[in-house]
Structures are given as structure tokens and as C-alpha cells.
S8 family serine peptidase
Amino acid sequence: MMHNTLKKSIIGFLTLVLVLSSFSFSALANGKTEVNSNSERLLVVFKSENLPNNVEQIISNAGGEVTYEVPQIGVIEVTTNTPATFLKEMMNNRHVLSIGPSQEVTLDLPEFEVASEEVASAAPIENIWESGYQWDIEQVTNNGASHDLLTNNIDEVVVAVIDSGFDFDHPDLKNNVDLEGSRTFVPGTEGVTDSWDYNSHGTHVAGTIGADGNMKGVAPGVTLRSYRVFGATGGAQQIWITDAIIAAANDGADVINMSLGGTRLLGQWFYTDPETGEKIRGGNSAADYVAYNRAIRYAVNQGATVVSSAGNSEQDLKSPAKVADWQNANRNDGWEARGAVFFVPAQMPGVITVSATGGGFGTEDRLAFYSNYGNGAIDLGAPGGDLGPDRLGGSKYLVLSAVPTYMNFNTGRGPEAKALFGNGYGWKGGTSMAAPQVSGVAAAYIAQQLAVTGKKPSPNQVQTRLQQTAVDAGKRGYDEIYGHGIVNAERALLNIRR
């Protein structure tokens, strides 16, 4: 359909850190005018979760222009060439709750150094599931035992993947991906169904959740729907993501997988006028946190179970004040965060937050070296992959999954996936790879309960079941590394408690 438009920028099968990039789009997805690269992007949150009828006039009078809006939660993105003047004017408006920078989110996979290995020339492995390379899915499903417990209505459960898109023609995905129901939120992309993957991250996540072919996901056959918010280089504005959350909830998604994240402030933003040095407050409730909170609450209230990766910054999430110091030390845009800085959506109320574990091939479970952790912040652990117990084990300890068949994944790092498995497979590691393991278990449990009771469980019921049936790891009971334990599909479907 669109393969001939694919650019020659190719992502390796072992993805390194995806560096934040600037975008230049000809038009915005909602029909607004393009953003001037010299303008300041601001997020404006109104006190009401509905936009004022004259919102565009309010913004124009203050010297700004509305470039994106999510009316269901009372949030807009604005550009202005005079941020200091705009802030002062808008904070005097009785409808405005808070204003802050509109921050970009990146797909920050950890960096791995993998020694090159020669792969003997042979016919590709046709049954990847039985090859032993899917150690992560084997662990979560008890070597496929949970697959035998899947109910026939698994396709009635929809997992929305807010990510970089899908390869809708991938042989292990094409029978259960919903092309017509998928959407794009990336400004400048063509049409509402342009949710194809030009990065590889989203396809990889989708494969872990529900692939059903040479490789198997946690819940083979579950309906997968793409909500594309990332371009090829892995950058997305927060408001695109919140818009996608609302859309997925309105579309009736049962599970929303968010293998993405960044830091957001619960406190106050201050902007320093570069000309006068004056510090201008952006409101008592940080706009970026409020926007995420409203979107997640909206989705949960609609019945969607929201699953998020914990993040790959090796941070202790129980200390948000220290995270604020860490973030401010890395800012140079005139904004300063005062208060507690949280990783989002990982630390938002209502989200199942997943840390990443390493393991496989006879090794013990361990927190992956890059994974965030923290008492009270982690709900579950799941395989995310690393380089083995001594970090020298090679790519086999990472997570193998689907990647776009129309992209080249030979980078010379580790054994070439194509030589081993044929086209369309690759390794990645990160909490991004752990979250879809939990989403797959959640989907399987929802399908089972629908078949047995005739109705779907609430997000709270799903989270409770997954936590009660997780395999305890680390300290006895809840701990800061694995949360309530490592998710396990067979135990969840059999209701086996610790």
C-alpha cells in the first residue's frame, strides 16, 4: 500500500538510543496551520475539562495560536513568538488552570554493545516459537501452557498500541491487526489509516502481545490496533499521545499499551524571560501532568486497562524530588520545574507500571540494568531483556519479536536475525519490551472472563488478578524491583495465587 514511500533511513535490528529529533511538517493532523520553528510550544490546560467556546479568540488575544486540541479533557497546544507576554496574559484568564512547555517524548531504548557473531549459512528457522529463542514468552506463558487456556473469543478483545505503528502485512500479525480501525496522530501523515511503522518499535511491541505465526505472542490472535504517535526517528509531542489515549478509549479498546514515557511535573513550571530575567509562573498545577492525568482517568473510566513501561533511566522512582533535580540539570530551554517530577505515564494513577527483568537460557531473574524501579511505583515485572548475567551474553538475552518486513535489520551487531529466522524479526531490549508482556496477559484474562461471565472485567479487576497471580521474585511479597512479582499468564487464567 505505502511501501514504495518508505524512506531509506533504516533502523537496525538491535535498536540503540533513539535521539530526539526536530520535525518540520507541512500541516497539522487536525487541520491547523503549521508550527513556526522559531515559536515556543506551550501546553494550556483549562479548569474545565471542556474547552471554552471562544478558545481560539482567547489564545489569539494573548498572542498565540492554537495548533492542536484535545477537547475531551480541556487541553490545547499553542505556539507563540512572545512566551513571556503570553504567559502573563493567559494566567490572568479565569478559565486557565495552568501552562507549561509542550514536551517531546522519545522512544528511549537503552544502548547495548553486542559483539558481532558469524551465523552459519542455513535455511531460516521456520518455527521460531519452538526454537528456544523466545525465552521471554516461554517464561510468561509457562512454556506455552497459557496458550492452551486461551478462549475462542480472544479476537473480541482489542489491544490499542500507542506507538510507532505496525507492519500490517507481517505474516505473524496480518490476520489479527485491525488496519481500518488504526489511526495516526503524527502531523503531516497521509490519511486516517496511515498507521504503518517506519521505525520498528511498534511492530516489535505488537508481536510480543499477539503474534500468531512462526513466532507467538503472549495472547496469539488478540485484535491489535495501532495508534501511531511516533515518526521514523521516534519523537512525539505529548498532546498527540493524550489525543491517542482518548481516541483508543472512545474506540472501545480493552487494553492500552504505552511502551513510552518521559518526565512530567507535579508542582509549578517557571519560565525565565530571556530579555528581562523575570521568572513567570505557569500556574499551581503543572499542565503536562494534569493533561496526562485527565487522559488516563478518561480511559480507565471508559473501561480500558492501561499498561505502561517504567522507563529506562535507572532511576529510583520513589524519589520524585531527586528526579526533578536530575531533569532541571538537563534543561536549557528557560523552563524550571519546582516540585516533584514523575515519570509518565508510568507513575500516573490508574496505570499498571512494569519494570524490566533479564533472564532466560537457565539464568536467574534479575532487574535489567537500565530499568527504573522504586517502592510504590512498580506494579509488576516482566521480561525486557538485557545482555545476560555478566552483560556479555549477546543478543539472545534480548527480546526477539516481529519487525517490519520492508526494513533492513542487518547492522553487524550480534547474529543477523534475518539469517537465523528470515525476514521480519529482530531483537530489542527495554521496559518497552516488558510492558507488552503484561498487556498480553491482561488481554487473555479479559477474554476468559468475557467467555465465562458474559462481561469484561474492570481495569481494577484486571490489575488485581495479574498482581495476585504474579510469580513472587526478589524480596518476599511486594518489593521495589518487581512490584507484586513477574507476570504469568497461566497463573492468571487458572487463578493461581501465591
About this structure: The chain has one domain: 107-494. Confidence is low (pLDDT under 50) at residues 1-37. The domain at 107-494 is CATH 3.40.50.200 (Rossmann fold).
